[in-house]
Amino acid sequence: MNRRKHANLVPVANLVRFVVIAFFLGTAGLSYVYFKNEMQTTGNEIRTLEAQLNTLITQDNTVHAQIDRLSSHSYLERRLAEGFIQLKPITDQSIVRVHLVGSRNATVPADSMDDLQPVSNNRVVAQ
User: Fold this and answer.
1) What is the residue range of 37's domain?
2) How many domains are there within the chain?
């Protein structure tokens, strides 16, 4: 009778071992699914941001091409001929030379360096 009572006990050690292994495998499976889902979500976000970046780069290139076209010499000459751009000649009274304190040299008197001086618009051609 004593033997039979001992043989009918539930194997607790095997049951605990099975529960621990099942818990570990369940946690590993859920972690795997979570990280795969996170990777998919991040990949979709990166793909969206790269598409927006490519769109912005295309718009930037378009704007730079338009700036180059609108600031080209031929375009500005044509707009000047149409009368859209009006240019006025620069007069000698409009040009002012400002000397900084550190740029004084021995050939120019120190008291005249502090005054604003009009500058001629004529060019000297070196031969």
Assistant:
1) 2-86
2) 1
Give a yes or no: residue 106 inside a domain: no
100 belongs to a structural domain: no
pTM metric for this prediction: 0.50
Query: Which of 60, 41, 42 minimizes the C-alpha distance to 52?
Result: 60
User: 62, 87, 88: which is closest to 77 by C-alpha?
Assistant: 87
Q: Residue 96's beta-bridge partner residues?
A: 118
Q: Two tokens at 19?
A: 């529960």
Q: What is the pLDDT along the chain (127 residues), one digit of tens a residue?
A: 555 555 657 778 889 999 999 999 999 999 999 999 999 999 999 999 999 999 999 999 999 999 999 999 999 889 888 888 888 888 888 888 777 665 555 555 555 555 666 666 565 555 4
Query: 60 lies in a domain?
Result: yes
Q: Does residue 115 belong to any structural domain of this protein?
A: no
The residues, ordered by sequence, that sit 6+ positions from 116 with a Cβ below 8 Å of its Cβ are: 96, 97, 98
Interatomic CA distance for residues 114 and 117, integer angstroms: 9
